[in-house]
């Protein structure tokens, strides 16, 4: 069926990652409060990068690389699962589980592609380059938007406090001071509407 | 809540397009035969572009622009809905409905961004540039893969014939001769497994 081993590996990978659509997050969609999955989330992040990149602290970020990063950043959850960001126990061993998953998944690809994707994923995780910091910023901002516009569904369900959301999201400032200003306003709005506990 | 009218428009757009996750396609996911939605599909296409761009007929295509095109290509379906590609009646008036949708959606954005997105979408629709031709190729190949690996679920449900699939998909060759060779092999495999009617 495949004209080369290389193409077979690439198609095998593209088939395998269909499973990202099965990984559910705690955040729900605005319209019907269905849980969002990781593929939808990754698409939405890519759109946030496209639309909001002008607000990155570093005006020269490589938008293309940032988009590639957000498109692949959650693939490891196909094996490792999604960990709710306020679940301290679930986070134990997360790094190890995800690194193992990255190696299994990306090694389906031809070797030089595998290396490119592992490098992208490691860059995202390390949050040190301006691109990774901006990617991390939109990865925090997007669920804030969904939470606010779904009337605080996931926050109310888990009894989340304002201080937890601040603690979780202040990293946004490293990627974008302007988006962190926005995020703080969204959080205050959520408190005033009773979606978040004011503590 | 917003520090500028520009940022308010951008966030409004990013909120509005959350609804792409509500638009169901006929194709189903490999693992559980759930219908795929347009956001998942758009993410998957971006991954196909990343992984398979080496097979584009034109070796110099702008991969970044191609990815942007596939990320936004289905947004018009938020208003216009998804039309099953083998539904001849459903296709009547599709172009007009989608153009109207493009203008409503993209005009939520600041005006120069609106123009950029309308241009990208028009480029995709016209299928004339090498980027648009490659984007169209992966837009055809991805459902072929899902159909084959979900044991022909959507094809069998609608009693689809091999000749219909060939007719629908031979445009792949304009973007990538190699991926069209692959597609023909996938189609033959589907016929031999009884997923497609051999006619």
Task: Please tell me about this protein's structure.
Two copies of one chain form a homodimer. Chain A is built from eleven helices and two strands. In chain A, α2 packs across α7 and α3 (63-72) crosses α7 (130-149). In chain A, strands 1-2 form a two-stranded antiparallel sheet. The first copy, chain A, has a single domain (5-192), classed as Orthogonal Bundle (Hypothetical protein af1432), CATH 1.10.3210. The first copy, chain A, has helices spanning 5-16, 38-52, 63-72, 77-80, 94-106, 111-126, 130-149, 153-158, 162-169, 172-175, 177-192; strands at 24-28, 35-37. At the A-B interface, α1, α2, α3, α7 and α11 of A face α1, α2, α3, α7 and α11 of B.
Query: Strand order, biggest sheet of chain A?
Result: 1-2
CATH topology of chain A, by name, is: Hypothetical protein af1432
The chain pair forming the largest interface, with residue counts per chain, is: A-B, 50 and 50 residues
Helix content of chain A: 55-70%
Structural class per helix/strand content of chain A?
A: mainly alpha
CATH superfamily of chain A: Hypothetical protein af1432
CATH architecture of chain A: Orthogonal Bundle
Please report the first level of CATH classification, the CATH class of chain A: Mainly Alpha
Order of helices and strands of chain A: HEEHHHHHHHHHH
- Number of helical segments with 4 or more residues of chain A: 11
Shape of chain A, please? globular
Cα-based radius of gyration of chain A, to the nearest Å: 18 Å
Question: Unreliable runs of chain A, pLDDT <50, ≥5 residues?
Answer: none
Give the number of DSSP strands of chain A. 2
């Amino acid at each position: 069926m495949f004209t080369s081993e290389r193409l077979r590996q690439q198609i095998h990978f593209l088939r395998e990652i269909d499973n990202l659509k099965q990984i559910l997050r705690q955040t729900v969609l605005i319209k019907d409060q269905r849980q969002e999955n990781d593929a939808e989330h990754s698409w939405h992040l890519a759109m946030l990068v496209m639309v909001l990149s002008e607000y990155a602290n570093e005006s020269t970020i490589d938008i293309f690389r940032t988009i590639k990063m957000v498109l692949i950043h959650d693939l490891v959850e196909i094996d490792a699962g999604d960990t709710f960001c306020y679940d301290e126990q679930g986070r134990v061993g997360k790094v190890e589980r995800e690194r193992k998953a990255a190696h299994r998944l990306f090694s389906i690809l031809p070797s030089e592609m595998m290396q490119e994707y592992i490098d992208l994923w490691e860059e995202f995780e390390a949050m040190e380059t301006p691109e990774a910091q901006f990617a991390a910023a939109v990865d925090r901002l997007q669920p804030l938007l969904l939470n606010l516009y779904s009337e605080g569904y996931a926050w109310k369900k888990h009894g989340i406090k304002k201080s937890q959301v601040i603690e979780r999201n202040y990293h946004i400032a490293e990627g974008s001071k302007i988006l962190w200003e926005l995020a703080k306003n969204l959080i205050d709005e959520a408190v005033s509407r009773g979606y978040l506990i004011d503590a």
